[in-house]
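Deliverable D2.4 — example input (C-alpha cells):
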C-alpha cells in the first residue's frame, strides 16, 4: 500500500461517520446515503493527491457529497422509490448523549418533506455548522438566498417537529429549531 493510499484510508476512517450521517440527512434513506457516500469517496480518491494538499479536504468531500446528492435528485434515473420500512440495522445508531431513535426518525421524516436544495441548506447550515457564506459558496448561491431558503425551510420544519412531540428548543432533541432567527440547530 502506498503512502497516498494509507493517508486516504486514514482520512476515510476519520470522516466517514460524519459524512455518512450528513448523507442520511440529505437522502432521507439509508441505501441512497450509502451510495452517495461511496460516490463521494470514489471521487475524492480519484483526486486524492490534489485534495490532500487542499486547505480543507473535508470540505471538498462534503461538497462532492452534496453535488452528488443534488445531481441524483435532478436526474432521477432510477424508478425505485424508497419506502417507510427501516429496520434498526438500517438506521444510524444514536451517539452517546443524543436523543432516542424516535426523535432521529422524526427529524429525518421532516427533512424529507423539504425540496432537495432546502434540505441541503439545512444540513450544511445546522448539521455541519457551516456559516451562511460557506453554505452559499458550496452551493454557488448568494448569502441572501441561503438565509431566505433556510428561514423558509425552518418555518416548514417547526410544525412537523412539533407534531411529532419534538419540541423545538427542548433540551436533548437531535436538532433544536430556534424560535427566532434561524441561526443554529444544536446537536
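Example output (designed residues):
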Amino acid at each position: 500500500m502506498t503512502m497516498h493510499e494509507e493517508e486516504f484510508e486514514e482520512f476515510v476512517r476519520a470522516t466517514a461517520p460524519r459524512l455518512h450521517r450528513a448523507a442520511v440527512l440529505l437522502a432521507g434513506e439509508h441505501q441512497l446515503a450509502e451510495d452517495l457516500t461511496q460516490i463521494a469517496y470514489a471521487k475524492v480518491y480519484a483526486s486524492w493527491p490534489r485534495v490532500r494538499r487542499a486547505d480543507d479536504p473535508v470540505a471538498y468531500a462534503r461538497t462532492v457529497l452534496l453535488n452528488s446528492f443534488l445531481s441524483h435528485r435532478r436526474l432521477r434515473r432510477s424508478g425505485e422509490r424508497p419506502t417507510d420500512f427501516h429496520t434498526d440495522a438500517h438506521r444510524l445508531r444514536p451517539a452517546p448523549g443524543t436523543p432516542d431513535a424516535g426523535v432521529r426518525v422524526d427529524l429525518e421524516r421532516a427533512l424529507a418533506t423539504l425540496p432537495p436544495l432546502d434540505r441541503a441548506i439545512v444540513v450544511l447550515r445546522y448539521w455541519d455548522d457551516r456559516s451562511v457564506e460557506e453554505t452559499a459558496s458550496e452551493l454557488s448561491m448568494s448569502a441572501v438566498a441561503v438565509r431566505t431558503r433556510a428561514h423558509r425551510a425552518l418555518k416548514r420544519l417547526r410544525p412537523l417537529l412539533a407534531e411529532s412531540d419534538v419540541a423545538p428548543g427542548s433540551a436533548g432533541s437531535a436538532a433544536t429549531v430556534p424560535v427566532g432567527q434561524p441561526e443554529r440547530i444544536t446537536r
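Residues 3-27 form the longest helix (25 residues).
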